[in-house]
Amino acid sequence: MAGKGTMTTRWTRKDLLGLRELSADEINFILDTTDAFKQVGTREIKKVPSLRGKTLVNFFIEPSTRTRTSFELAALRLSADVINISVTTSSLTKGETLKDTARNLQALHADILVLRHSSAGAPQFLANRLQASVINAGDGAHEHPTQALLDLYTIRERRGKIAGLRVAIVGDILFSRVARSNIFGLLKLGAHVTLIGPSTLVPKEFEKLGVEVSYKIEDVLPKADVVNLLRIQHERQRREYFPGILARSTAASRSTARSPTDCTASFSIKSPTVWQCAWLFFTSVEGSRDEPHNHSKRSNYRSRKQAR
Amino acid sequence: MSPTIIRNGRIIDPANKRDEIADLYISNGKIVGSKSEIRAKLSRRDGKSEIEEIDAKDLIVAPGLIDMHVHLREPGFSHKETIESGARAAAAGGFTTIVCMPNTSPVPDNAGTIAWIKDRASAIACVNVLPSGSISKNLAGEELAPIGSLAQAGVVAITDDGHCIQNHEVMRRAVEYARMVGLPVLDHCQDYNLVGNGVVHEGYWSTLLGLPGWPAAGEEAIVMRNILLSELCDHPIHCQHISTAGSVRLLREARARGVKISGEVCPHHIALTDEAIQNFDTNCKVNPPLRSRTDVNAVLEGIADGTLSILCSDHAPHADFEKEVEFDVAPFGIIGLETELGLFIDLLVHKHAKIDIARLIEMYTVEPARLLKLDAGTLSRGSPADVTLINPDLKWTVDVDRFRSASRNSPFDGWKLKGRAVRTMVGGKTMWKL
Amino acid sequence: MKQAKQKTSGAAVPTMDAEAIRRALQRIAHEIIERNPQLTRVVLAGIPSRGVEIAQRIAGFIHQIRKINVETGVIDVAMHRDDVGTRFELPMVRESKLPLPLEERTVVVVDDVLYTGRTVRAAMDAINSFGRPSRIQLAVLIDRGHRELPIRPDYVGKNLPTSGNEKVKVQLQETDEKPDAVWLEREP
């Protein structure tokens, strides 16, 4: 937690591509500042001028309503200008490559790019080529950092802490970017994680990440402090991974002993975590606009000292 | 070209069991036995003979190296590479003979395309280019190509490389035909169903990054298939680009029983592991994929004990704009002609000390020549003067911008290696020197 | 207090000790009581970090004098600054707390040091997004001059003329866990 005397931000990255590369400190920093941003939505005038004159581009190749609207709302509340590009309105359908799209976005002078894409690594691809800050809103089955941050915030809000909690993640883990980001975040913050699902969707290989794998939901649930239910990602599977999907997931939800966390969180909770990402990236963007590749230069630039 | 004497080099000629410091004599594009056999013209001006002398002190004088797995992309994909640029890249890598793969457009599943390739190569290529023919028509894996007429047209082997025949019965018939006409069969071992849309090795890193996996079993299943068919048909089958521990084990056991099965290795499968893909660098996307540390160690052992007997590159050029896309849509492939020798010497001979330089040269000369029944890979008296001079201790840094290849898709840019070819001679003429 | 030894950040000149600070805040409390007959309508809103502690102390003095509990609050200004984007290091964002509604109330903005006036402008901007108080006043422990905006304090603990290369340093018991003190640091 930030000390009373801590005056400055501790964020030095240009982009938010995933939770795997973040330190526990960085994750905690985001969670610590969530309350302040959340509160803006309860004010009479739901606007602060922090990102005034900055442009945020929502670039969503995969469809999404909730995530895109959350980012849009966050940007508007921070006084940024928002442009929404979806797959149907983009030129990708006309055969434009991602690299060309990057060039066009550069020409727009976008300050923040929020990208949702079906290919893992696409946000990194753009982050390497653009001066804009890139926020990954979900890339294939790889990561969905803002969703995981929201889940971590929700857990911390309800349970007071994350370290030491027994968290069960249930469902289609293999194809789930939300699962991966949650796994990275929870492990970094000291939770004990168990994955539950059929073996085709939860391969044993996951144990090498530091989690437990179980195929028996009834063994795990009674001891779990938090349960995160994932949805079956039909669109990402290449074929029927196991029979009776519906039967399994209904059984899983019925056998839940305690109420699951809000994985279908409402806007008012979702938005803040997303806003401060916009805030953080905005402040790091201003550090140096010359060379997007020089991340090491950027962090030297931004050595953080206590203000007093 | 003038006759040449290569002086004071360490001549390593495994075919003739030669490893000694001596001079090598070349006349009229062929190796000759001694200086007296050199028919040198006397210069009109001063009466002195025009023999060129090359100082090979501290260098290895080897038979011209053979790379039997190269994609030249012509006809059809000349934006990636051409026969001309590929040949230049080969010469710059120390290779005097290359075997080109059939996944071109049109596919060399007919004598006409083979003839085109051979004509083009003899007109423009600075090294020997030997075509392979396809096993199936259009690489579709269903109907056999006219293997007999391909043999007559002069292919050195048949392979569906890039693709793999899934129907074992079709493959069996192909092997039987090949036996009839005396052609070796090469196979890119990939079971399409097990592999699915896998893009990286199925293991820790694919799980971590959420990328579809290419399981080791996808290669091993077909290696097993080929072992069985090789036994059944009593004909050699050569498994291309072996990458997994399981494949090495299967080959070892089968070879111990005398089955005519062999395997080759590409440098990226021992230089890198699947950890390299974590930044989604498409220059690390290759088929078969980079594997785990365990697999790499098993492949190194396979080279050390002779289970894997041939080295090659699977030189697979792609244009920049093709590779500079999202990871899962990028084409598979790494170029290798200009880095393979350096990588293999550095890793196999120096770093891991798995084989000595003589064996390395053997794996690039005698072994492929024997498999493909080529009149190459030796410094015997009377053979074409295809010679590669190698400095095994030369330190150099890979710089892709200086490659002769038309493409740049290599993950080895900036690597510091020890060992390199310094001169490549084809038919007695120097086609490249450092 | 002896003058601190020459360090790389320059000499330190002590300005106020704990007793001086206590007297100043007590006087401010009296002044607030004088100018605000309806104390229940007053909100002492501190700007983090030290403004919050100062606001609470002033409220404490008011309670000692009048036995009335004046409401305190927190105004976080980080999101309202006009220099976001030109500075590399920005203050930590914290939650604001103000008793609502603000209509018909007097909000006294409380901070430790008044300098250019931009922080106070941001505080007023922040207050506006919560509501429309009938009056906004300003209480500061130190006014060091060099205003860049037309902002003036209503209550001042000490006027301290300074030059551009000096820094005013404030230390408070609760916030810094060190004894109360104000001193000047000169850059060499």
Please tell me the overall pLDDT of chain C: 89
- Point out poorly predicted stretches of chain A: 1-7, 243-308
The proportion of residues in beta strands of chain A is 5-15%
Question: What number is the mean pLDDT of chain A?
Answer: 76
Brief overview:
Chain A is α/β, with parallel strands linked by helices. Chain A has helices at residues 24-40, 66-77, 98-107, 122-129, 145-159, 177-188, 217-220, 245-254, 267-285, 295-301; strands at 55-60, 81-86, 112-117, 133-139, 166-170, 192-196, 212-214, 226-229.
Layout of helices and strands, plus pairs?
The complex is a heterotrimer of chains A (308), B (434) and C (188).
Chain A: H1 24-40, E1 55-60, H2 66-77, E2 81-86, H3 98-107, E3 112-117, H4 122-129, E4 133-139, H5 145-159, E5 166-170, H6 177-188, E6 192-196, E7 212-214, H7 217-220, E8 226-229, H8 245-254, H9 267-285, H10 295-301
Parallel strand pairs in A: 1-2, 1-3, 3-4, 5-6, 5-8, 6-7
Helix pairs in contact in A: 1-9, 2-9, 3-4, 5-6, 5-9
Chain B: E1 4-13, E2 18-27, E3 30-32, E4 52-55, E5 60-63, E6 65-70, H1 83-93, E7 95-100, H2 111-124, E8 128-131, H3 147-153, E9 158-159, H4 168-181, E10 185-187, H5 192-195, E11 200-201, H6 204-209, E12 213-214, H7 217-233, E13 237-239, H8 245-256, E14 261-265, H9 268-271, H10 293-304, E15 310-311, H11 320-323, H12 340-351, H13 357-364, H14 366-372, E16 387-397, E17 416-426, E18 429-433
Parallel strand pairs in B: 1-4, 1-5, 6-7, 7-8, 9-10, 10-13, 11-12, 13-14, 14-15
Antiparallel strand pairs in B: 1-2, 2-3, 5-16, 16-17, 17-18
Helix pairs in contact in B: 2-3, 4-7, 7-8, 8-10
Chain C: E1 12-16, H1 18-35, E2 42-46, H2 50-66, E3 71-74, E4 106-114, H3 118-130, E5 135-143, E6 155-159, E7 166-171, H4 173-176, E8 181-186
Helix pairs in contact in C: 1-2
